[in-house]
Write a structure and sequence with these properties.
The complex is a heterodimer. By secondary structure, chain A is mainly α. Chain A is 68% helix and 0% strand. Chain A is elongated and about 50 Å long. Chain B is of the alpha+beta class. Chain B has a six-stranded antiparallel sheet with strand order 1-2-3-6-5-4, sandwiched between helices. In chain B, a hairpin with a 2-residue loop joins β4 and β5. In chain B, α1 crosses α2, α2 crosses α3 and α6 crosses α7. Chain B is elongated. Chain B starts with a helix and ends with a helix. Classes of the chains: A mainly alpha, B alpha+beta. Chains A and B meet through α1, α2, α3, α4 and α6 of A and α1, α3, α4 and α7 of B.
Amino acid sequence: MLRRRPEPGPDSFSDEVLRHLDALYGTAVRLTRNRADAEDLVQDTVVKALRFESRFERGTNLKAWLFTILHNTWRNRIRDSARQTVDVDSTRIDELAAQQGGPIELETPERVLLRESLGQEVQAALDALPDAFRQAVWLRDVEEFSYAEIARMLNVPIGTVMSRISRGRRMLFDALQKQDKNSPVGATK
Amino acid sequence: MSECRRTIDRLPSYVDGLLPADEHADVDHHLNACPPCRHLAALEQGGHAVLRQQSAQLRSESLPPGLRSRCEALAREHAAAKSPRVGALLTNWRSMVPTFLGAIFLVFFASALLSIATRRSDAVLAAQLTADHSKCFLMSAASSPADARDVERMLVQRFGWSIHVPPSSPADGVELIGARRCLYADGLIPHVMYRVNGQDLSLYVLNGVTRKATDLVTLGHRSQIWTRNAKTYVLVSSSMVEGLPDATRYMMNEAQ
């Protein structure tokens, strides 16, 4: 059952890791909101993935494993550089959520989805979300990881992941609707 | 109220279509009867739909130039370091020069604009200097002992670098064999080459840079990083070097 390692040269594990570079970088940009930090983070992630190859369980999701390394590395780096993560102020978020329950006019998702400049608006709205929510909605709705995979990446319980996804989605859409209302063509009810 | 709480807790699964049919119907039932929850569900559905619709565009960040080739070089080194007989690492490196050394050399030379002297992480710095360490010893013909004063003079004359080069120290098993310009960080780093009990050891000096002291293993090599008087020193060696602690102590005392 023991598998002999191939001689140096073509290496399937490395190839598999490199296949996920684009996804890692896209996520790193969204995570760090800074291209230089993202580049550094991706390279660091690759170094660690190669070094800890033996800890990867064959047959499991390599992409999820790499994303876990990426997020762990970023968390450590923020801690090391004494930069505080944005604390999720649950009370404030609850207040926001409660306000959203008020009698305001809603744009339908369809209307928002038809906006021409939506791509840029979504990027801006995503970047404006608190870190914890941005990470959760990105990993779920863009990268399509499961709640359990995201929980491992972010090192939080599944319930917390679901709550962050939920609130992140709501805050994002709320921001997009407000933009629509502020825009000259968005005045229809 | 508790029914609202239960509904809100289930909204992500509801929107993701992951609820069993009966629970989905429960949520639908509550949403029909409860405008505030219906509002929250609409927001969540909207956020989800927008992100799904835009996911391809959001994911389409193009890689910065050089990142892929640097990672490929790291992968090649990794493949080489996985060679079965660690003791024969150097031999394997030598035998594989034509196949991957050129690639590593070109890739890292091309990425010399990397400013590792700034805030690159320790692991990345260590990986890059480890690549340089392996490459320089392969390419260098130097193997006879060198005089520290000659080396210091050469570094001043050729590159304008005035640094203290720790001389050979037979008591610590350290033998100075030469110095050259490291190709990283715009070629701004001196690379001083030693042998310790016959094995390769590199000392890099990053002038005007301070970093936290650390000791890490990257790609089968040990990198010890410390800072003195606004200079950061990085000592790179195979982690198997015999007598490394003595040599390290000597270097740390000397390189001040």
